[in-house]
Amino acid sequence: MEGSGEPQGGAPVGQSEGSGEPQGGAPVGQSEGSGEPQGGAPVDRDPAGRRARLAAARLYLCTPIRPDLRGFADAVLGAGVDVIQLRDKHAEAGPLLEAAALLRAAADRHGALLAVNDRADVALAAGADVLHLGQDDLPMAWARRVLGDGVLLGRSTHDLDQARRAAAEPWDYLAVGPVWPTATKPGRPAVGTGLVRAVAGLAPSAPWFAIGGIDETNLDEVTGAGATRVVVVRAIADAADPAAAARGLRRWLDALAPAAGPRRATG
After folding, report:
1. In the beta sheet, which residues pair with residue 114?
2. What pLDDT band is residue 183 in, cutting at 50, 70 and 90?
């Protein structure tokens, strides 16, 4: 319908009419026609498997492109990060695809999920497990048109009304925040732990993560407000020892595991 935001007619974006297959080759980091990531054991790509791993996730990390990305990813995923998101607002598609291929391979080595921020095209090309969308990003219907039903979709929420709406829609997870001011969201007012507590009271059926300025000094406040899952950036990415920082956060979150479900085994 014109003006509705719903995609109209034709084959999904990036697919030939009637084929249901993406055109232009296999996802970055995969062999043509195999559908399997290279350099590691086959990883479950079906939606149910992805959702099960998301339900078990506790610790979600966003990272920009960085010179040591491969080693950094292996270190933090091995230390307990369940979901690693490529988030780089300033990078062009080429560098994003190269970085996504590195993260795809690292996530597969560690049984973790790869997320991409905002860019459905990059998520499609990289074979990402998750696309994360903000309030002003691509509408869900178009994201599904591009990616199909197999890729999980996450939604940022910044107030209780947004959280209620998202909880009533078929998002695969919600992010709630920013709890505290953060350099990754300049100008975005912090919502405090009150919103975390309110969303915990909603008891959404989808997994939800607190986000924004969370680190080892305030994690107890967030979990005390009812969060059992968190998204972090600088707490790990800027740490002198990112793996040690990830292990420390994960130990705290694992203490809440009985309330949140099973955990992913870590090295």
Report:
1. 84
2. confident
Three-state DSSP class for residue 39: coil
User: Measured between alpha carbons, how far is 187 from 194 in angstroms, rounded to an integer?
Assistant: 19
The closest alpha carbon to 123, from 259, 229, 29, belongs to: 29
DSSP 204-243: -SS-EEEESS--TTTHHHHHHTT---EEESHHHHTSSSHH
pLDDT grade for 45, boundaries at 50, 70 and 90: confident
Rounded to an integer, what distance in angstroms lies between the CA atom of residue 38 and that of residue 83?
19
In the block, residue with structure tokens 């270190």: 75
Residues in the chain: 267
Token couple for 218 = 């305030």
Q: What is the pLDDT of residue 15?
A: 44
Residue with tokens 């920013």: 178
Mean pLDDT calculated for residue range 195-200: 98
- Name the band, by pLDDT with cuts 50, 70 and 90, for residue 44: low
- Catalytic residue (one of 58, 155, 185, 250): 185
Domain 47-258 has CATH 3.20.20.70: yes
Active site residue 165: no
Amino acid letter, residue 179 = V
d(CA 167, CA 99): 31
The residue extents of the domains of the chain are: 47-258
Catalytic residue among 50, 53, 87, 247: 87
Q: Is 89 a catalytic residue?
A: no
156 catalytic, yes or no?
A: yes
Q: What sign for the dihedral angle of Cα 146, 150, 151, 154?
A: positive
pLDDT digits (tens, 9 = 90+) for 48-105: 999 999 999 999 999 999 999 999 999 999 999 999 999 999 999 999 999 999 999 9
